Every structure is written in structure tokens, then in C-alpha cells.
């Protein structure tokens, strides 16, 4: 059997690589909207519950990549045909809370996801200030924002390689921790197993989580699929 490292190559991309940015945005968008992988339907739970279309999500993803890629924390996996089959994209910006709807028209349901992420981010910001006595600054944390995978084979190994590249770089640059929002149990298991990320516990000993059953737009998500979005962390 062909080894993973031979089947795929890995590369941190830059803003000059516009074609790879577009391919990365496509991989991420298809992974979130839904993709058939080896006969199994894979989809992000909130996106699956809401009325979100590929074209809108692609534009959102591409805009994010263009704005953050030169920080050096977007890594892709390419197959032997140079197709982008895996992406892990992050940034080192301090969390920003807008507190209002940002998306309109056919993409308006993305506001539901935005508010879920902002809620748990705000709780982390507040907890960090309680612990440290200061606000979070740019360059303190690596925020792993989007993971997309369309690879047919060795999917967990691809996730491991993608994360290793970014986490190793973050550690070498002196960042404090890696953080992220996990929207389903599979993401939590995979990021825990391969990258030692854990559910964040606040100063009162509680997980930072947004439960879907408490959200009238997301309560239709089967709890056997996902019960909520959790804040994850790995200290460096």
C-alpha cells in the first residue's frame, strides 16, 4: 500500500499563489457544504442544518484565505495530480466580536454560525482576562479556523500532517497556545488524538460550549451527530 507521505505533498501557501488559494477555498467549501467520500456523506452539522449554498461559502472562505494567508498558517495537502484534497487554515489575530449580523441575502443564515462562534469566543476572551488580567493581543494564539478534507484515503493521517506543520510553526514562533472551535464530536476526537487539543475549561470548571438544542435554528441537529460547538485548546 502506498504510504501517505508519498501519496500526498504538503505546502504552506502565500498570497502570490492565487490558483492554490482558489483550490483551497473550493476544498474547504465542499467539505463544509457536504461531500461524498468513499460512499459516505461528510458535512459540517450547522451548515447542513441551515440554508447555505456552495457559492456563498466559497466566497466567504476565499475572502478569509486572502486576508490571512500571508501570516503563514494555511497549509494544503495535494495529491499526485496536484489537486488540493486537504486544507487547514488559521490565523494569529486576536478574536474579534462584531455582535451583529454581517451577512445578507442568500448567505444570511451564515449569521447563525457567526453568532455561535462569537458566543464561545467571547466566553474565552472573558475567561482569559479573568486569568491573566489583560486582553488577548494579536500574535498570542494560533486560531485554527477551518479544516477541510476531500481526500479519499488516509484522511486521519492527512489531518495529522496538516496540523503538525502549523502547530510546529506556532511553537517555534513562541505562540502561547493553539485554539479552535469544534462543531462536532468527530472533530473533537481527531484534534485530540492527533494534536492533543482538549475541550477548554473555564475558571469555574465549565466547558465553553454552545448547545445546539438551545438554539432554535440549530435544535434540529441530531444529538447523535453533534450536541454543540466546543472551544478547544492546546498549550504550547
Total helices: the number is 7
* Outline: globular
Query: How many individual β-strands?
Result: 10
Helix fraction by DSSP (H/I, runs of at least 4)? 25-40%
Tell me the CATH topology: Aminopeptidase
Q: Give the termini separation.
A: 35 Å
Strand content: 15-25%
Mean pLDDT over all positions: 95
In terms of per-residue confidence, which ranges show pLDDT below 50 for 5 or more consecutive residues?
Answer: none
For the biggest sheet, the summary is:
8 strands, mixed
Instruction: Determine the CATH superfamily.
Output: Gcn5-related N-acetyltransferase (GNAT)
Helix-strand category: alpha+beta
| Architecture per CATH nomenclature, i.e. the level-2 architecture | 3-Layer(aba) Sandwich
Query: What count of domains describes the coordinates?
Result: 1
The rounded Rg comes to 17 Å
Order of SSEs: HEHEEHHEEHEHEHEEE
CATH first level: Alpha Beta
Amino acid at each position: 500500500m502506498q504510504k501517505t507521505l508519498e501519496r500526498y505533498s504538503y505546502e504552506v501557501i502565500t498570497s502570490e499563489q492565487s490558483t492554490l488559494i482558489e483550490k483551497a477555498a473550493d476544498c474547504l467549501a465542499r467539505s463544509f457544504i457536504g461531500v461524498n467520500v468513499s460512499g459516505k456523506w461528510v458535512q459540517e452539522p450547522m451548515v447542513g442544518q441551515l440554508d447555505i449554498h456552495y457559492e456563498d461559502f466559497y466566497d466567504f472562505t476565499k475572502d478569509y484565505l486572502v486576508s490571512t494567508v500571508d501570516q503563514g498558517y494555511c497549509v494544503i495537502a495535494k495529491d499526485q495530480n496536484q489537486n488540493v484534497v486537504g486544507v487547514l487554515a488559521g490565523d494569529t489575530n486576536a478574536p474579534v466580536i462584531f455582535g451583529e449580523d454581517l451577512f445578507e441575502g442568500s448567505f444570511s443564515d451564515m449569521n447563525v454560525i457567526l453568532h455561535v462562534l462569537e458566543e464561545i469566543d467571547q466566553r474565552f476572551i472573558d475567561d482569559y482576562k479573568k486569568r491573566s488580567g489583560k486582553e488577548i493581543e494579536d500574535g498570542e494564539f494560533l486560531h485554527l479556523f477551518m479544516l477541510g478534507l476531500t481526500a479519499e484515503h488516509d484522511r486521519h493521517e492527512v489531518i495529522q500532517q496538516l496540523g503538525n506543520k502549523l502547530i510546529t510553526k506556532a511553537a517555534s514562533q513562541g505562540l502561547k497556545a493553539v485554539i479552535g472551535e469544534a462543531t462536532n464530536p468527530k472533530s473533537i476526537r481527531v484534534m485530540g488524538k492527533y494534536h492533543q487539543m482538549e475541550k477548554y475549561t473555564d475558571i469555574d470548571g465549565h466547558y465553553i460550549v454552545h448547545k445546539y438544542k438551545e438554539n432554535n435554528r440549530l435544535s434540529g441537529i441530531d444529538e447523535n451527530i453533534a450536541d454543540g460547538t466546543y472551544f478547544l485548546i492546546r498549550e504550547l
